[in-house]
Amino acid sequence: MSEWTTYQLGEITEWYSGGTPSKQKEEYWNGEIPWISARSLKGTRVSDSDLKITQEGLDNGSRLALRYDLLLLVRGSGLFNSIPISIVEKPVAFNQDIKAIRIKKEFDYISPWFLLYWFYGNTRILNGIMEETGIGAGKFDLPLLKDLTIEIPPQKELEELTKTFKSIDDKLILLQEQNQTLEELAQTLFKRWFVENEDPEWELKSLSEIADIKIGRTPPRKEEQWFSKDDEDVKWVSIKDLGESGIYILNTSEYLTQEAVDKFKIPLIRENTVLLSFKMTLGRVGITTETMVSNEAIAQFIPKKKEITPEFLYFYLKTFKYQKLGSTSSIVTSINSGMIKDMPISVPDTDSLSRFSNAVKSIFEKIKSNSKEIQSLTQLRDTLLPKLMSGELKVKELV
């Protein structure tokens, strides 16, 4: 550490604010420039978004982040239990809840990847300078953030650190992309067999006729003793967890004590059970990997016949057109558990279900295996980062 150089974060970086073009101006939206909000700031890299603005929108309310800038969420509900920060892979616009961080020219020997990993390696410190602004929301104290001390190693060690963690990150990205490709393949098979070639002889039933449906619960929020961050307690699935998990749910942001589960009679969810969010955010689907519980915005589905597999149910719920259940304007607030139970499903014959299950079984097993490897690599990264970034551990000691 004697050879490391000490700076303040604000000393080596420049910070830029984003913005939101007027939603009343149609000419500002649906252009070609990706516009990043908390929703699209996921993972270590960012290059695109579902929301896009025009050049006119950029000129009248937003700002462009350049390649290798970092985008950091500095306020909002996205800061609850995580600190979203990504490196920009190609220029994108961004909103006012996000700051673009750029390394100053005189410090351009410091890789932006190193700075990215520095943030990931100092999440405990960062959490310590965050203010709560409401339930599940936070805000950074920016002057304190910029005053944080950052230790920069000698050039050779800096390059070794960057190379080590970028290799882990590249592996994570590869596995995530592989899972996305595999899921798209399985979904194509599902649509081909059960959507595009639906047999008129298949029996039309309600969802509750083919599966028992149970809804989760939330203990009183004011009674903090029921909630936990200890991974030895019972994993408690939220809508956010479903949004971040992919097909298989391995982690949750919160846990419940066993006492809470027993006292409030919260229904247990067994391994390999399909879940669906049906309040607030409708249509997020996932499959459990162990015994868990969920809140009241999530339903679990227990098939009454073995032919109705989790893989079939997953894609049925993933591709269902929920607009059928109510008007577009009120669907998020009007859906209830009764409507979920009454959802129509055309039940294929046993042979078709069996053939589909056999066709996608290996795909789902590979996705689960990849997901577990992603979890292991992420834990390895998060364990090593603080030690390497502080100089407590050297890269050569890992070999």
Characterize this entry briefly:
The protein has helices spanning 9-12, 55-59, 112-121, 123-128, 142-146, 155-195, 207-210, 239-245, 258-263, 310-319, 331-334, 337-341, 350-390; strands at residues 5-8, 13-17, 29-36, 45-46, 52-53, 63-65, 70-73, 75-76, 85-88, 92-94, 98-103, 130-134, 137-140, 149-152, 203-206, 211-215, 227-228, 234-237, 248-249, 254-256, 274-277, 285-288, 293-294, 298-303, 344-347. It is of the alpha+beta class and 399 residues long.
Unreliable stretches covering 5 or more consecutive residues: none
Report mean pLDDT, rounded to a whole number.
Answer: 91
**If helices are DSSP runs of H or I spanning 4 or more residues, what is the number of helices?**
13
Beta-strand percentage range: 15-25%
- In quaternary terms, these chains amount to single chain
Helicity, in percent?
Answer: 25-40%
